[in-house]
Write a structure and sequence with these properties.
- The protein is an alpha/beta fold.
- The protein contains 7 helices and 7 strands.
- A 7-stranded mixed sheet has the order 3-2-1-4-5-7-6, sandwiched between helices.
- α1 links the parallel β1 and β2.
- α1 runs parallel beside α3, α1 runs antiparallel to α6 and α4 packs across α5.
- The longest helix is centred in the N-terminal third of the chain and has 19 residues.
């Protein structure tokens, strides 16, 4: 039986943890093989705590953030984590990286893809990452791109929550119950030692989304994650299904 797969495209090495750790852990528990692509290590703009240490170098920061991300991925049950090392602040997407992501789509054939919001005036790497991820998805669907290689289908794309949603014109229309895997997400969050100041913040976000998920369903939910679906849902029924 073919194993179902999922893909997460993260601008920096910690983004997939804060914003999609629950979804990753929940699907891994269901048997999905989840691949995470970190486009950068967040070494320049998201590692202030490390840069305050004396004698710190760019390569040392990268190594530390990579270690954290790998530990977090293990805590969440990620099958594979890939580091494209495209830099941050600013990120530089190369043609080679673009082709690599297109080929990854065709190789793992994800059932879904998670990435950043379309806008983020506080961090230009984030919208660049989602444009990159969604553009590569479209090319992976093109029959004329490397003919003879099976094309990608139409995996749904979900945009995970930015740090300040209102300023990013991001509106959640998909709420995910992560209560049963919250301890896994929390363990992953605590792997991100370079950004300890965000641990409590993203705990509050998960509790708030849990409340909203409960109010929009008949389920008792404590912790949640929110997403904005890019494409319409295709379904055979409009009623409530069983909560996975």
């Amino acid at each position: 039986m073919h194993q179902k797969t999922g893909l997460v495209v993260s601008a920096h090495s910690a983004d997939f943890v804060w914003r999609a750790g629950g979804a990753i852990a929940a699907h891994a528990r269901q048997g999905y093989a989840v691949t995470v692509v970190c486009l950068s290590f967040g070494e320049r703009g998201e590692s202030a705590k490390l840069w305050k240490k004396s004698g710190m170098t760019l390569e040392a920061v990268k190594a530390d953030r990579r270690r954290e991300a790998e530990n977090a991925a293990k805590a969440l049950g990620v099958r594979d984590i890939l580091f494209y090392d495209l830099g941050d602040y600013p990120m530089q997407v190369t043609p080679e990286a673009f082709d690599r992501l297109v080929e990854l789509y065709r190789e793992i054939r994800p059932e879904f893809m998670l990435t950043h919001s379309r806008q983020d005036p506080y961090n230009f790497d984030h919208p660049m990452a989602t444009e990159f991820a969604q553009h590569a998805r479209v090319i992976a669907q093109a029959h004329g791109h490397k003919p003879g290689t099976p094309v990608l289908g139409a995996p749904p794309v979900y945009l995970f929550e930015p740090h300040q949603p209102e300023q990013c014109n991001w509106k959640p229309n998909f709420l995910l119950d992560i209560t049963d895997v919250w301890e896994k997400k929390l363990a992953a969050i605590k792997c991100m030692e370079g950004q300890e100041h965000l641990w409590e913040y993203y705990t509050r976000v998960a509790l708030q989304r849990g409340v909203q998920a409960s109010r929009n369903s008949d389920y008792k939910i404590t912790y949640g994650e929110a997403y904005e679906a890019v494409f319409p849902h295709v379904t055979g029924t409009l009623g409530h299904g069983a909560l996975a």
